[in-house]
Amino acid sequence: MTSPSLFSSLKLSHLEVKNRIVVSPMCQYSAVDGFANDWHLVHLGQFAIGRAGAVIQEATAVSPEGRISYGDLGIWKDEHIKKYKQITNFIKSQGSLAGIQLAHAGRKASTDLPWISRKQFSPDEEHGWQTVAPSPIPYHEKEHPPIGLSQSEIQEIIAQFKDAAARAVEAGYQIIEIHAAHGYLIHQFLSPLVNFREDRYGGSFENRVRFLLEIVDAIKSVLKTEHSLWVRLSATDWADGGWDIEQTVKLTHLLKGKAVEVADISSGGAVSFQKIPVEPGYQVPFSDQVKQACGIGTGAVGLITSAKQAQDILDRGAADLILLGREFLRHPHLVYTWAQELGVQQSWAPQYARAKIE
To answer: Given 184, 201, 282, 352, which residue is catalytic?
Structure first.
């Protein structure tokens, strides 16, 4: 009997994911000055013990101003690397791939920790700083407006992504994912509802995608053959006149031509007036459409909660990988549970196997 494809390996150009179950980036808001600590080691390490095919670290800011909150991880200075090496060494020791998501929050930065409030701090408040964006328009009308980036400042941020990727390589990450979704800075450039520029970074589709494509080129220049470049995209803004699936497909063709291996397909986040019809697997059709149109590896995300549901997505060719966030928080050893549900023999880590866990 053929093993379910959920537990088959996926070969990338120079890496192999041992199964199709991937830990999605999940912000922990538990860093100080961008530094990882033992919380991050244990949080990420538990999923590797649990046999996830790959573990992707939370949105990690390329600059202090690029953090969503003052508790976000960062990779804007060399001193950050030491703890990341410990994390990647452990993840890889358990047979999982170690990934990192590089990010800049743009106008959605400078917020409080989410379990305290959803407030965005103004620059003169403690824990606050001046935000930036393609255009000086805040996410919420009453928030302190971002500063519209000059072209020279855009080039500085591209260089920050490049430097962050170089540090990620030194830290031992194998998958480098660019966060171009959820209304953060790169998505802000993509969306015509947020980007009102009249220069080479705004207006036409070709101009709005330029920032991301230049970041891809900059990051590629510091990656080695053993690395895999992924991009997370919001397939739609869920708002009239916004970024949509047709533009996502067009962009993904360009990304594939630049050797991006996986399009991690999510949605939403660009504007506060979005209307999202949330239901189980509601984002999977976008992954399906991108995969069929572009012939690129895709990751499906969003309210995927069972082994059968995940396997069905793979069976109908709607995605190559299943990325999970909240389900892994609820069940860190979810891979073992899903293997049992699908009748797959999955070896436990020897430290746990001796207890004959069933």
So the answer is: 184
